[in-house]
Amino acid sequence: MRASRKPTRVDPTRLLQIIDDFPLARVVVLGDFIVDEFIYGEIARVSREAPVLILNYNSTEIVPGGAGNAAANVAALGGTALAVGVIGRDETGERLVESMQPRIDLQGVVRPRDFRTPTKTRILAGGIHSAKQQVVRIDRATGALPPDTDRRALGTRLLAAASRANALLVSDYGSGLVTPALVTEAQGRLRRWRDAPVLVDSRYSLLRFRGMTACTPNEPEVEQLFGIRIGENRRVLERAGRELLRRTRAEAALITRGSRGMALFEPQRPTEHIPIFGSDQIADVTGAGDTVIATMTVALAAGASFLEAARLANYAGGIAVMKRGTATVSRDEVADAVRSDRG
After folding, report:
1. Catalytic site residue 290?
2. One of 114, 150, 290, 336 is an active-site residue; which one?
3. Secondary structure (3-state) at 107
4. Using DSSP, how many helices (H) and how many strands (E) does the chain show?
5. DSSP secondary-structure letter at 263?
6. Cα-flanking dihedrals φ and ψ of residue 256, to 5°?
7. Domains of the chain by start residue, with CATH
8. Stated pTM of the model
């Protein structure tokens, strides 16, 4: 095991230079595009019909989730996001497309007529003078994958988008749409760009992907992959991170650890343990992983080292978890965080 040590200092001026170059990133975002629906209400009373709360409805908000949130974060950071995925022609799909335009390029999106757009509905309740808290979440999955003709169209559009990009971000939420073969094909098209980064975030199947530039799993996902419990045990974390590098043949692995910060693993280099930026009193982790991989991808495409990209992703992730709901983080917010950090 490598000895624990203080985090390596990264020059803030260099980080600000990288942020200035964020607009150079043209990122294909391949994955599962999900509708994140938030229904807000105020608690009225307890029902006489059953021991449940009655809410007075206030409003509904629709925002891009999954790969859509990753693409929205790429755009908010100043990069160009080229979306490649499947969105249905149902009502929620139409609202998702509307929420992504015009800041995200949707030429690579396939729109089957019989495809149900996956939707996560979160109902939040609170009093007039209190913060809204999530009461229940309702998930509506896609059901069946699109037919072969639509999946072939997706592959064609992926290659077309990759020819216009200098980075690939894969956001696999487990629908079965994203496959290692599809990613490998896109990697081949990206090879015309020297050192074009390919980053993968896979909820359930990360070990199926090989030869990526970097992956960004959270700690519970790593624990599930290897059947372990990490907690405060850095020895277990170290073994898991090194095994993740070996099994995926990635150039780097960034494990996000919630209030414990992040751990960056690179072959033949000591592990970097990066403390959480900002308060550890987290408001909402919804979509924070999308913010992290988006920032890491944009930074690498802008010329950052793995450590520099991880530092910037840590700033962005720290900002995202202090926002309610599925949130994006802007380039100016990340720059302000770099300037304000005295760590």
Report:
1. yes
2. 290
3. strand
4. 10, 13
5. E
6. -90, 135
7. 12-33+66-116+144-340 (3.40.1190.20)
8. 0.92
